[in-house]
Amino acid sequence: MASVPNKQPFFKKLSKGFTVGAVITGSTFFHGPPVLALGLTKLFKKSKKVDETNIRITNSWLSINNWLIDYVLPNTKWNIEIDPELELNMNGRYLMTCNHQSWVDTTVNQYFGLTRMPLTRFFTKWELIFIPFVGQAFKILGFPMMKRHTKIQIEKNPELKTRDMDEARKACEQLLSQPFTLLNYLEGTRFTKEKHQQQQSQYVNLLKPKAGGLALALNILGDQIDALVDMTIVYPDGVPDYGEFWLGEVPRIAVNLRKISIPDWVLGGNYEDDPIYKERFQNWVDELWQEKDQLITQMKQNLRNSLNEVS
């Protein structure tokens, strides 16, 4: 079996790290202020033209990142498979699910989607709004931002249980005025062996899925989307952290996209208040997750076989 490429010499790594860091920082400070400035105008008047301009600016920022990936990190080999039944275009409306292992997942999604799909938003934690430029841009660009409340907090203030859902509902409804891709990491957190053991997950490669966010999105957007897309990401040589990725130390990344059929009964159900529908929806998501788990195992095997053929 062929070996994974060795780590880069220190000075080459330092040079690459400085270049990537400088370009990303400069690009963020160049693109961030216009998005924030235009976003402030929405406090006084909503404007479709402002939204479209902000998306163009954001796509320009992402294109800089993709240029770095293609020309500064050319050692990363990409294996991308797309379901023939899945027709993607820049004017579509898509819901997307994905497994979650690293912050690199979001960069992979953006790298893949920039020229194939509308700008990807995802359900994210409210606390990220405090990250300079990036967090505020999430809010301005319509990312559904969720506050996590403990059971004790909800018991003291039951209103908190529905407040988050109301905010997410508003964010989803606002997306209907434009093409969009709305991503939901169903696991709710990054996969680790420790979390997998703590959950006693029945899946080999995945944590247990949390279906509430997807149920909410399908309830609001389901009859107006072009497809429910499932993205599967595999790092065959080990899950990288963000620094390893941008230093070019990720030899291979495999991505699979498949179209998920939405049963008629899914649309129009009430996940929060109908226990029968909730159980049925959760069982449906569990079946999708079982298929995904098997797909990841097969992708890993195919990648091992291809590496053996090369060696």
From TrEMBL:
<dbReference type="Pfam" id="PF01553">
    <property type="entry name" value="Acyltransferase"/>
</dbReference>
<dbReference type="GO" id="GO:0016746">
    <property type="term" value="F:acyltransferase activity"/>
</dbReference>
<keyword id="KW-0012">Acyltransferase</keyword>
<dbReference type="InterPro" id="IPR002123">
    <property type="entry name" value="Plipid/glycerol_acylTrfase"/>
</dbReference>
<feature type="domain" description="Phospholipid/glycerol acyltransferase">
    <location>
        <begin position="94"/>
        <end position="236"/>
    </location>
</feature>
<keyword id="KW-0808">Transferase</keyword>
<protein>
    <submittedName>
        <fullName>Acyltransferase</fullName>
    </submittedName>
</protein>
